[in-house]
Amino acid sequence: MAGRLLSRGLLVRSRSLGGQRLAVSGLIRRGVREEQIHTTRVHRDDFMEQVKVDREEQQKERMNMDKEEEIKTELLDAALVEVLTHGWNKSAITAAATKLGHPSVVAGLVGGVEEVVLHHISKSNRQLDAWMVDEVARLTSGGSRLPIGKFIRSCVVQRLSFNIPYLEAGLWAQGVALVAQPAWAGRGVELGQEVCDDIWHRAGDTSADMNWYTKRVTLGMVMAATEVFMVQDTSEGFRDTWDFLDRRLEDLSIMPTISKVPGDIAGVVEGLFQTAKILVGVQK
With contact defined as beta carbons under 8 Å apart, do 270 and 189 qualify? Predict the structure, then answer.
């Protein structure tokens, strides 16, 4: 009897201890899960905070880049004015930085005076495009059809006229020669192709065959030849240049085939660059 009671007491005690162990184990597991959840939340919060910081840094970097690009554009615009006094050299860029109230070190934003030349070409193309929009509206007001020949001639005259301040200062041949260098010629050719395409686009050209290509090549040839002639023209108001342009446009109307035209606009512009380099050598 006493033995049975003792065994039962031991069994009850064992079950009680087992229950306590299970309860403790449950509390530990629950604590571990809660710790894991807390750690996950902490990691997630840290991750989100890092994402926020990264976004703010990227936004700040973009703002700095935009500001730097804005300053560079202002510097290039101002340098185009200073070139008329200092010529195509670094001193024009430094003078522009000073005029704008920047320390001279800011001139370093411009990679070289070649960038100033290319900026003039690019800016002139944009100015021409804005002019063409207004000119098309004027010529077609009241439902009139756009006189293509007249419009194309006006566009060439308008675009080349943007070079006149540098031509009159005896600087344009040197400017073109600068961007004829291998490191810069690619961009110069691209801008030459761009203006030909812009003119035909504003003229309403919708051709999708060989004519699309032919029109741009022939226009590039005419513009390049006229620009070379213009560099050497000393007539009043560049009258001889515009007469030369008219003759080239007339030549196009009687040209029997496109076979006499250089392979593409790139070839035409490249020819202009090489001619300009020769002219600079002659002028020296």
Answer: yes
